[in-house]
Design a protein that fits this description.
The protein is α/β, with parallel strands linked by helices and 438 residues long. It is built from twelve helices and 24 strands. A hairpin with a 2-residue loop joins strand 23 (405-410) and strand 24. It binds ligand LLP.
Length: 438
């Protein structure tokens, strides 16, 4: 069994997180429950933030809040000196309600609505990451009408796509996001924005993928962007102040995953960019990054109560839990792999093989296939590791199942940060039928 962050097994054989018994948490808050190890989130954040400081590179580490967005999470990210990346009016609203300093907010998205852009102007956020020509037009008009300045980055697709250990470079990127760096679109976007009276072009952004365990692809992408910066400098005497290399730093879900420490990603990235910058005789830009999963992924653990048990003779043993694809769509959607332990038997050997099924009405609602677990009985608490990123964030009310509660734990303390949905929440927006029959 692999333990993450502050996880331990106590003298009663129970899994603890942040010094708190997970059985106590399950009892007090109910299940399904997301538990976040705050110390681990802080450690990861410091890993990124302090490495830039140590290297003397001006930087912003923006938490990609699509991974897990809540008021308390934004406040935690701000405490750790991070900026915030939002991708919707809903995330922006949550961040503002959390008291995040607006100038530290970056707004992403390939189809931001006018209302969302107006909200960003109204709040005077730090920067909008511009995705396409339609958005350039909309923004120019909006900024002019409001007579208000707005800082922007151009999101470009460098033709580098990274995933896990591999990456590919292609001449053209087939992506719904951003301006192609290789086919002239990025240059055209530059020409349309760099002299605008109200839009203040800071530089470029790219995001090359998810769950990346190798630093080479970030370097390749960085070099391509620096080359473009050099061209814009030479041709138009324009200086890109900011180079944003996105997120995608990998984490350990199972033993096959071999992530690097935040420091390593940052150090390698800086080494390559600095070298390239020297080569083309530019000054080092500010480096911004956007980690999501690597900040909150393995800091999150889902607690479920085990209920029914089904044996398919000579095929498989199912155990079912009180949640499933409604609180973690990743196994069904991406065939994502996870590990788990029976939290009240964490000191016992994992002698059994079970497929952990959810309770949703869909055969594909399986959380883990062939999990190695302790002998399971109804009422046991299953702790599924590494569910902190894109778990709660992608939760749904399928089958009108209520969304779980979320708690933060740290140094023996625990705190509810998102309350469990109730049946009243479930019907809150419903209206009774008023159409008359016939
Ligand atoms: N920046 C941009 C522009 C992004 O599109 C993303 C993720 C990130 C940063 C953060 O990436 P991270 O560090 O978390 O890998 N739902 C999928 C992941 C979708 C990621 C989308 N973009 C999953 O559950 O694996």
């Amino acid at each position: 069994m692999h333990l993450y962050g502050t996880q331990q097994v106590n003298s009663q054989g129970h899994l603890t997180i942040g010094g708190v018994d997970t059985l106590t948490l399950a009892q007090q808050y109910g299940t399904p429950l997301f538990v976040y190890d705050v110390a681990l989130i802080r450690e990861r954040a410091q890993g990124f933030v302090n490495t830039f400081k140590k290297l003397g590179v001006t930087a912003q580490v923006a938490y990609a809040s699509k991974a897990f967005s809540s008021i308390a999470m934004y406040q935690l990210a701000a405490q750790e000196g991070m900026s915030i990346d939002v991708v919707s009016g809903g995330e922006l609203y949550t961040a503002l309600q959390a008291g995040v300093v607006p100038s530290t907010i970056h707004f992403h998205g390939n189809n931001k609505s006018l209302a969302e852009l107006e909200m960003a102007f109204e709040a005077k956020i730090g920067c909008i990451v511009v995705d396409n020509f339609y958005e350039i037009e909309t923004l120019k008009q909006l900024a002019k009408n409001r007579q208000q300045q707005m800082a922007i980055l151009l999101r470009v697709t460098p033709g580098v796509e990274a995933h896990t250990h591999d990456f590919i470079t292609t001449g053209q990127a087939d992506s719904k996001f951003g301006f192609d760096l290789n086919n002239g679109q990025a240059d055209e976007a530059f020409l349309q924005t760099y002299q605008d009276e109200y839009l203040q072009l800071l530089g470029m952004h790219c995001h090359i993928g998810s769950q990346i365990f190798d630093t080479v692809a970030f370097g390749v992408a960085g070099e391509k962007l620096v080359d473009k910066m050099a061209k814009w400098k030479e041709t138009y005497q324009f200086t890109c102040r900011v180079l944003n290399l996105g997120g995608g730093f990998g984490i350990r879900y199972t033993e096959e995953d071999k992530p690097l420490a935040p420091q390593v990603y940052v150090e390698d990235m800086i080494k390559v960019v600095q070298k390239k910058v020297n080569e083309v005789k530019l000054t080092m830009p500010e480096i911004w990054i956007e980690p999501g999963r690597s900040l909150v992924g393995d800091a999150g653990t889902s607690l479920y109560t085990i209920g029914s048990h089904k044996t398919v003779p000579n095929v498989r043993e199912y155990i079912a839990v009180d949640g499933g694809m409604s609180d973690n769509i990743r196994p069904a959607l991406y065939d994502a792999k996870y590990e788990a332990v029976i939290a009240n038997k964490a000191d016992q050997a994992a002698t059994e093989t079970y497929t952990v099924a959810g309770k949703l009405c869909e055969s594909g609602d399986k959380l883990i296939e062939d999990a190695q677990l302790q002998q399971a009985e109804a009422g046991d608490i299953l702790a599924m590791f590494c569910t902190g990123a894109y778990g709660y964030a992608m939760a749904s009310n399928y089958n009108r199942v209520a969304r779980p509660a979320v708690v933060f734990v740290e140094d023996g303390q625990h705190q509810l940060v998102i309350a469990r949905e109730t049946y009243d929440h479930i019907i809150a927006n419903d209206k009774a039928l008023t159409l008359k029959k016939g």
